[in-house]
Structure formats: structure tokens, C-alpha cells
Amino acid sequence: MSKWSSKQLISLLFHSSTCFTNDNTLFYMFTGMNAAVRATVRVGIYTGAKVYFVFFIYEHGGLVDGGDHIRLATWESVSMMLQLGGTVIGSARCKDFHTKEGRTKAACNLVKLGITNLCVIGGDGSLTGANEFRTEWSELLQILLKAGAAHTKEARRSSHLNIVGMVGSIDNDFCGTDMTIGTDSALHRIIEVVDAITTTAQSHQRAFILEVMGRHCGYLALVSALASGADWVFIPEMPPDDGWEDHLCRRLANQRSLGYRLNVIIVAEGAMDRSGKPITCEMIKNLVTKKLGFDTRATILGHVQRGGTPSAFDRILGSRMGVEAVMALLEATPETPACVVSLSGNQAVRLPLMECVQVTKDVTKAMTEGRFEEAVKLRGNSSLYSYCISVININIALMNVGAPCAGMNAAVRSAVRIGILQGHHMLAIHDGFEGLAHGNIEPISWASVGNWTGQGGSNLGTKRSLPASMMEEISLNIAKFNIHALVIIGGFEAFVGGLELVTGREKYEELCIPIVVIPATVSNNVPGSDFSVGADTALNTITSTCDRIKQSAAGTKRRVFIIETMGGYCGYLATMAGLAAGADAAYIYEEPFGIHDLEINVEHLVEKMKTTVKRGLILRNENCNSNYTTDFIFNLYTEEGKGVFDCRKNVLGHMQQGGTPSPFDRNFGTKMGAKAVLWLTDKLKECYRHGRIFANTPDSACVLGMRKRALVFQPLADLKSNTDFEHRIPKTQWWLKLRPILKILAKYKISLDISEKTALESVIKKRGTV
């Protein structure tokens, strides 16, 4: 057990919409909350703490009413909730909390239960309210003592209140975090609607205007526009210039003249022009209808964006944030300022709560005062609001290598269009390195990649062949087609192929061109990147399939499902799907196991299934062990579970590679494609000498990857030492640190490494004083 097990700290899980400032924002439910609830409860119990729920029923309940509305949470009380949207403990506005009397009642209820830690899931209003509650805590204790509502011993035991916040908002409008819990699920709902509308719009040759949520933040509108290939987007932070009506109509008319059968315009609900006048769906519809005569429809998505099943990303994000919140509470002292746990790149960070709230309010204030450029800067790294464009005339070729995956086409489309905007000539190489060797190369235009973002697979065609045996033909075609730079989008074969091209530079001068590899594979096994394009779509497929498989046994006797996932020797999919779907075990190659481990797992599951738990889920990576096959594990659990549960097995197979890309993969592929072309542009300027391009330094052939908190370019040669070429995986993988969390959430009594502590960072210092 953890070293904290003897420290009887008491945590409280609290959803609140209340604030007592001028912010009258009503806090709504959103998907992903239950994952945070589950992780906070189970990790809190694991550390030896008591964890309480605060239930809200309409305007009643919560901290103020106390009584049965504050209940002790158990391990079983958060079972089977990962797949549920909304929040199982409710969320409501409590008017009484606005008053001193109401807050005093709330303090009394906490003191009586000995609660000294508060975990708040909400937006800036909820978090501000909680921080004010903490600030006046000593004063409230004195009021209780004078009134005789609390004893001196109780007040001493509850002398201080620690606060940790988790940000929940589908708008992604909270400064300090790249993604808030619920945003990715909302994007799933939006993209599902846009994809469905696209089919009818193409059939009837219509223009569609869609309004999405985002009163003060255009994140949902902007990312859904990028992910769907929309023609135009309106967001509050970047109002269009005067005369936008004529510009929009010219753009739509030009698209139709090029043969496009549909137009999609996405509008954030808070969109406005530079004078502050709202820009609405109906206004745009009337403009397009009257000026162009297009058959136009307007759709307001509304609260459908808040509901539905949480995405895999939100489940994992909620789980990671819940764990980090408990760690922050356990490490807190009376002097520790209230903090909020956030996501920066792929890293969990802690930030001062009120600094984040202040910057968030500064964004709204800047927009109100017409300082839009400042508002965009304050939004931070997650905003995606602009890409710089410079002009240099070069030929950039693109290819897909390895197995196809969702998101490849989004990366190609982005690279092509950013390249064209910079004045480059873009070339498409069909069928990977074989196509490059055989001269299967042609120009690719702006219009030809028009609808690629939402399409799965590889429209360029892709093969697993490596270039080593075709080096001479490849070098000849690079010279023949005058290729100045190469973008390779693919999996482990793309990485190895890039290395082979770098090695071939010693013999073939034509290969001395800048090369960038964009990781794209469901296996997420490319060295140099925490994430690969395509992995999120596969993860969502596995997670939703696990939900359906577990639901298939509803109402029957206790049942355990054994599910095999893809990934080669990489256990990323099995591990992360285990976190997202609530698996009891996930067997992977990177964590060797034997018959003794299997015996422990079976016995553990047998004991769990003797309680109120009725479903078990076991995931197995396809190559985790050549002897302990899926059939072997199925037979073992079937035999040992007799009389307690029965078993079923499923091999998911290539369904994990198919389907339309998730919003994350569309967005990630778009960013990666754009970033790659911009980097190549700068690199070509460095390598241009005496009328020719010559690039043979290690940093002229790189992998573009997400590493912790940023997209970085790493030389292919530098990554060789960190690569297990036999098993096609990196030697170090970040997600292995999440394995203990998977086991803790499955109720295993294991030790948790807490040697790496997350320091409290400053938001204002990073962004400059506001």
C-alpha cells in the first residue's frame, strides 16, 4: 500500500455550480465527469482516505443541506460508470451558497464529518466559489464556535481546508489547460452531426450553417471546422474584417464554380463582428440565400453537444486528472494555495487556481473591449488560432507508408494546403516507397484534397515496403521529379524507411533533401512521439466495443470478457483502453507476466465477482506472449471461474484500423501536416546553397512528435538508440507509468511510485503579466 495509508485524510468529491461573484454562469453536466469521480474515489480509498459524495437534487442538497446529501463513497459505488455521460452525483445551482448563512451551514456540515479536503469539478465560477469558501474558512469556524454549532476539538481537527480543482467545460474556455474534461466528447457529437449533414448536403447541393456552443470561446467551432474541412468559421476571438459578407459570398461562389456540391459554415454561438454585433446562423443563411441563391439550411446543435457517451480521451483525461487531484490534496499543507490540475501537451500539471481564473476573465474582458489579438494570445497554446505563412517556391512530396489508419488523409490535406498557401508545388506519391521507386508521382492540388479530413484509410495508397532494396530507383525519381523535400506519413515502417534514406545519403546525393516523418499508426509505436495519428480513433473503437460487449450481458449472470487488441508488440492500445473501459487487467509485452501472475489475476477477479460486481473485463495485446494466447487465458478464466462467473472472448481484429477519424485524430493530423511543411520551409532555406539544395546533417531528417508538452522535431539518427527494432517499439514509453493506476482502479493492492512530484507552476509568469 501507499505510504499515505496511515494518514487518515478525508477527501470530498464536490460538483458545484455556485459562485458568489458577479459571474452568473450556470454550470451544466458534461461527459467525462464520471471518469474523474471514479478515479478520485478509488485512488482516495487506496491511499486510506475516506471519500464522500455531495449529491445535488434540483436546487436542494449539496454542502448547505448536508445530511443524506453528503454520503460516504465506496469502491463499488463507482462501478460501471465510465461509459455514462453527465454525472451520477448530480450538479445544480445552490442559491443558498451565495449567502454567508448558507456557507456557514456548509462549513458546519464539513466540520461535523471531519472533511478537510475539497475536490471541485467545474468551470471558473465553481472554482472561484470554492476558493472564496477556503479563504473565509477560519472566519466561518469562529462563527460556528461562537454559536455553539461546533466544538473546539472539531474546529481544531478542521483548522484548514485544502482545495483542488478539475476543470470541466465543453467550451475548453479555461486558461491554463490545453483540454478541459468534456471537450473531446463534445467534438465527437459535433463531428458526428457534420459528417451526417455532409452526405445530405452533397446529395442536394446545399449550403449548411451550423451553430456550436462557445459563448466566449471559439475552440469547438475552430477545431470542428478544421476537422470537417468547413469553408468558413466564425469565432468570438477573431471577428471578421469589415466587408466579410462579400468575402464570404465570393468564397462560396468560387467553391461551387470548382465543382463542390456542398458548403459548410460553422458559427460559434458567441460569434460577432468587430463592432460587437452578433453574427448568427439565421443572418448568414439569409445572406447566402439572397445574394447567391443557394439552397441553404441552418442547424443549431444545442445541448446535444453536452450529452452522449464519453470519448476515450475524456475518460482517460478524467482518470488522470482525478489521480493527480488526490495526489495534490495529500501533498497539500495549510500554506499551499488552491490549485487546479491541468493538461499541458501530454503532461499533467498543477497551476494556481486563481491565476487561471484571472487569465480566463482577462480573455473575456479583452474581447469585450475589442482587444481581440490580446485575447488570442491569452488563450495560450491550445488555441490553434493561426499559422504563419511565408513564401518560397519548392517541390514537396508526400507519401503514406505502412498500414493505413484514420487521420492520414487529414495530415495530407493539411500539408498540401499549407504548402500551396506558401507557394510550393505539392506532389503526391502513391503506394509508399514502391510508388516513389516506380515513378507513381503526380501533382496534387488544393481541390483534390477537399473532403479528405473526415475520410479513413489512406487515399494516397500505402504499402509496408522499405526503400533499402530500391534505393537507386528512388534516387533517380527524386531527381527526375525535382523533389526538394519529403514528408513521410506512417507507422514504424515510415520511421525505419526514413532511417534507410538517411543511410543512403552516403551513396546517393539525391537523398540529401530535408525529410520529416509524421507518426501515423494505430499501434502508437513510433519512437520520438507520445502519440501517433490514428491511435485515438482505434482507442475509441476499442472502448465503445468494450462498452457494448459489457452491456450485452446486462441482466444475465456474472460474466467476464476476454478481449484481444491490436498493436503488435506495443501495449498502448490494451493499456489505455483498459483505463478508458475500466478493465480488471491488461496483458502486454512490455510488462512480462507468468502463470503466477495469471493465477493472482484470476483469484482477484473471483473475489471481486463474489461481491456486487457483475462484469469483468480482461484485455490482451495480440503479441503480449506467444504461449499465453487469448485462447489459453480464456480457458484459464473459464475453468477457475466455474460457479462464480462464465467467460466470453472477442478478437477485435481490423475493425480497429477502420472507420472515420476521431476529432482528435483529425485535429492532430491537421496540426502535424501544417507543422511539418512549415518546418521544411525553414529547413530548405538553411540548406539552399549556390542554386541547389543539399541537406546531409542529422537534423535535416526528423520525426515530428508530441513529447510531453510540445510538438518537437527529433533527428531520426538520435532515436535509433532508443528503439527496439526486433519488436518494433521504443525502449521507453510514457504510458507505462499509467499501468499502476490501471491496477489501483481495479482494486489491486500495489505500491504507487510517488517519487516524481508535480510542482505548482505559474500561469501569469508564462504568459506575461496581464
UniProtKB/TrEMBL annotation:
The protein's annotated pathway: Carbohydrate degradation; glycolysis; D-glyceraldehyde 3-phosphate and glycerone phosphate from D-glucose: step 3/4
Keyword set includes Nucleotide-binding: yes
GO MF term set: 6-phosphofructokinase activity; AMP binding; ATP binding; fructose-6-phosphate binding; identical protein binding; metal ion binding; monosaccharide binding
EC number: 2.7.1.11
Top-level taxon of the source organism: Eukaryota
Enzyme class: transferase
Keywords assigned by UniProt, alphabetized: Allosteric enzyme, ATP-binding, Cytoplasm, Glycolysis, Kinase, Magnesium, Metal-binding, Nucleotide-binding, Transferase
Any one annotated GO CC term: 6-phosphofructokinase complex
Phosphofructokinase domain location: 31-328, 395-679
Catalysis: reaction(s): beta-D-fructose 6-phosphate + ATP = beta-D-fructose 1,6-bisphosphate + ADP + H(+)
GO BP terms in the entry: canonical glycolysis; fructose 1,6-bisphosphate metabolic process; fructose 6-phosphate metabolic process
Residues annotated as transmembrane: none
Keyword Transferase tagged: yes
Cofactor(s) essential for the protein: Mg(2+)
PANTHER family: ATP-DEPENDENT 6-PHOSPHOFRUCTOKINASE, PHOSPHOFRUCTOKINASE
Family classification: Belongs to the phosphofructokinase type A (PFKA) family. ATP-dependent PFK group I subfamily. Eukaryotic two domain clade "E" sub-subfamily.
Protein name according to UniProt: 6-phosphofructokinase
Organism for this UniProt entry: Astyanax mexicanus
